[in-house]
Amino acid sequence: QVQLVESGGGLVQPGGSLRLSCAASGGTLSSYAMGWFRQAPGKEREFVAGISWSGGTTTYAAFVKGRFTTSRDNAKNTVYLQMNSLKPEDTAVYYCAARRDQAPPIQPWEYDYWGQGTQVIVSS
Questions:
Q1: Angle of CA points 74, 23, 93, to nearest 5°
Q2: DSSP per-residue letters across 25-92
Q3: For strand 18-25 and strand 46-51, is the pairing parallel, antiparallel, or unpaired?
Q4: Cβ neighbours of residue 16 under 8 Å, at least 6 residues apart?
Q5: Which is nearest to 4 in space by CA: 79, 83, 82?
Q6: In tens digits, what is the pLDDT along the chain, a chain of 124 residues?
Q7: Of 22, 33, 39, 79, which has the fewest CB atoms closer than 10 Å, so is most exposed?
Q8: What is the DSSP letter of 111?
Q9: 91 with 123: CB under 8 angstroms?
Q10: C-alpha–C-alpha distance, residues 2 and 114, integer Å
Q11: Contact status, residue 55 vs residue 108, Cβ threshold 8 Å
C-alpha cells in the first residue's frame, strides 16, 4: 500500500510561483508512473501533468504547458510540480497520484493511489 502526501501549497499572487512536493511511503516510487491533478470547486478533477516511472517522459495539459514542470527524485521517493506564472484560474486543490505502470495515464480512474491534496490559491 503506497501512501502519498502532498505539500507546498498556499496563497500566491498572480505571476508568482509555487513548488509542490509529493512524498511516497510504503512502496518504491520508481515502480510507479505519477500524475498531478487538480480540482476546483464545482469542477471535475482534471489532469495537470504526468511523469513516467524513470522520469524520462513527461506530459502536460495544454493549459499549463510552458508554465509547470514535473520532476521526480526516485532516491528520495518524491515527485515535484514546479508552478510558475500562476494565474487565478490555477486556484484548486492539487493531488498527486500513482499508477504501477511505466507511463502516466491522463484519466484519474486509472490511478491506484492518491494523496489527500494541497490547496493552491492564486489571488492578489
A1: 130
A2: ESS-GGG-EEEEEEE-TTS--EEEEEE-TTSS-EEE-TTTTTTEEEEEEGGGTEEEEEE-S--GGG-E
A3: unpaired
A4: 86, 122
A5: 79
A6: 899 999 999 999 999 999 999 999 988 888 999 999 999 999 999 999 999 999 899 999 999 989 999 999 999 999 999 999 999 999 999 999 999 999 999 999 999 999 999 999 999 9
A7: 39
A8: -
A9: yes
A10: 9
A11: no
Which amino acid appears at position 89 of this protein?
E
Cell 494565474: give the residue. Answer: 87
C-alpha cell at 30: 520508481
Residue type, 107: Q
Residue with cell 520532476: 71
Cα–Cα distance for residue pair 96/89, rounded to 1 Å: 19
Residue written as grid cell 498531478: 36
Q: What would the grid cell of residue 71 be?
A: 520532476
With residue 23 as reference, give the H or E element that holds it: strand 18-25
